[in-house]
Amino acid sequence: MNIGATIKNLRKKKGIQQFELAEKSGISQTYLSQIENGNRSATIDTLEKICETLDVPLSILSYLSLELKSVNPEKREAFLKIQPAINAMVEEFFLQDLNNAST
């Protein structure tokens, strides 16, 4: 799992600057930078604050951070088949601006 890279990706997709996400999440920009770059682990409380700011559930952050090597080898083929559909739903429900999605 690479939660930091996923946070960075989500932040950029939502057009949020690092300092903004840090401030709104109640953490320092240095700490957020360390998390995003994989130099420091975040606590669950910190991840929940970041997810709240990004408007993405922690479970979705965890799913998006999942690496293929973390999936049971016997289930990887099935995972690869459903992953595009799940990613499309995540994109639609959590990453698009809902006001612009209906136009």
Question: Overview of this structure, please?
Answer:
The protein is mainly alpha-helical and 103 residues long. It has a single domain (3-101), classed as 434 Repressor (Amino-terminal Domain), CATH 1.10.260.40. 68% of the residues lie in helices and 0% in strands. The protein starts with a helix and ends with a helix. Residues 98-103 have low confidence and may be disordered.
Task: Supply the helix-strand structural class.
Answer: mainly alpha
Described by its quaternary structure, the protein is single chain
Write the element-wise H/E pattern from the N-terminal end onward.
HHHHHHH
Relative helix content = 55-70%
CATH class: Mainly Alpha
In round numbers, the mean pLDDT is 90
- Overall structural domain count: 1
What is the radius of gyration? 15 Å
Q: Please state the second-level CATH architecture.
A: Orthogonal Bundle
The separation of the N and C termini measures 35 Å
Major β-sheet profile: none
Q: Are there runs of 5+ residues with pLDDT below 50, and where?
A: 98-103
What brief labels describe this structure?
103 residues, 434 Repressor (Amino-terminal Domain), disordered C terminus, globular, mainly alpha, 68% helix
